[in-house]
């Protein structure tokens, strides 16, 4: 009597699972998190990164670790693919849930430049008012701003910060102008993607977010300058910028994006119009 042959289970060779990539990602995250928290966090991150890198290396070199995965046989064969002669219906942009890129309209670049200039002027008025009220000097906020490019200004005495400085004035105007215009351009790009109430997003949410980020970074990079900044008035000046810039950008006439253009226009091809075809 012939013995019955038992079918061997089918298997497939796959790379063995490993947790080292996640450990490496956690280590790198801790390295950068320590920059704004504590140096010990960065030290732990460096150690974890090195250990994870070595562990991951040993899992793939010189021979990658693999394991056999059981493949379950299909209960029934797949059906044959039968081609269909039905035509495809074309939807217009946005019709019947047809997908489209958001936003459909964007603000022009000129609106961002104008918003940055107007917002920078509003911010300057608040900053100068702070200098006059609390330090009896128009030059105090200007000199403090110039400390971004003149490190010596961060350590200057109150008398020096209240005095006029031509170099600090020029650097302060240039730095303030460039930052304001760049922020205005960001407003023109980002605000159309947010749901309505552009003045709310640009005038309150955005200033609070970047002020918190700047406060955390400046406390590590330049603690002396961070201690001299009056953050209450800084937030007020940023809100003034955001309200003015957001209002100007939101009032600008939006421009339709290229997705609303015909294919020939998007491809840069000059195609004949209907009248030319009839001829």
Describe the protein in words.
The protein is mostly helical and 279 residues long. The protein has two domains: 12-70, Helix Hairpins, CATH 1.10.287; 105-256, no CATH class. It is built from twelve helices and four strands. It has helices spanning 20-33, 39-60, 109-135, 139-145, 151-154, 158-162, 166-190, 198-221, 223-228, 231-251, 263-267, 274-278, and strands at residues 11-15, 66-70, 105-106, 255-256. A two-stranded antiparallel sheet has the order 1-2. It has a two-stranded antiparallel ribbon with strand order 3-4. The longest helix is centred in the middle third of the chain and has 27 residues, at 109-135. The chain is flat. 19% of the residues are buried. The model has no long low-confidence stretch (mean pLDDT 79).
């Amino acid at each position: 009597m012939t013995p019955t042959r038992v079918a061997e289970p089918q298997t497939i060779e796959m790379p063995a699972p490993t947790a080292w990539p996640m450990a490496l990602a956690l280590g790198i995250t801790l390295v950068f998190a320590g920059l704004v928290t504590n140096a010990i966090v960065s030290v732990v991150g460096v150690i974890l990164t090195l250990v994870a890198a070595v562990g991951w290396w040993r899992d793939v070199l010189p021979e990658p670790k693999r394991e056999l995965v059981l493949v379950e046989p299909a209960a029934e064969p797949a059906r044959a693919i039968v081609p269909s002669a039905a035509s495809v219906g074309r939807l217009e942009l946005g019709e019947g849930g047809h997908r489209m890129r958001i936003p459909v309209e964007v603000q022009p670049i000129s609106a961002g430049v104008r918003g940055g200039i107007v917002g920078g002027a509003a911010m300057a008025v608040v900053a100068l008012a702070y200098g006059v009220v609390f330090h009896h000097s128009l030059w105090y906020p200007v000199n403090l701003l110039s400390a971004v490019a003149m490190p010596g200004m961060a350590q200057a005495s109150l008398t020096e910060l209240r005095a006029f400085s031509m170099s600090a004035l020029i650097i302060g105007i240039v730095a303030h102008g460039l930052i304001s215009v760049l922020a205005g351009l960001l407003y023109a790009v980002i605000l159309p993607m947010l749901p309505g109430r552009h003045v709310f997003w640009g005038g309150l949410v955005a200033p609070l977010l970047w002020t918190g980020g700047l406060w955390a970074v400046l406390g590590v990079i330049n603690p002396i300058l961070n201690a001299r900044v009056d953050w209450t008035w800084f937030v007020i000046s940023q809100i003034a910028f955001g309200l003015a810039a957001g209002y100007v950008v939101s009032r600008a006439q939006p421009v339709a994006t290229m997705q609303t253009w015909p294919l020939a226009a998007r491809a840069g091809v000059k195609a004949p119009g209907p009248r030319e075809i009839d001829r």
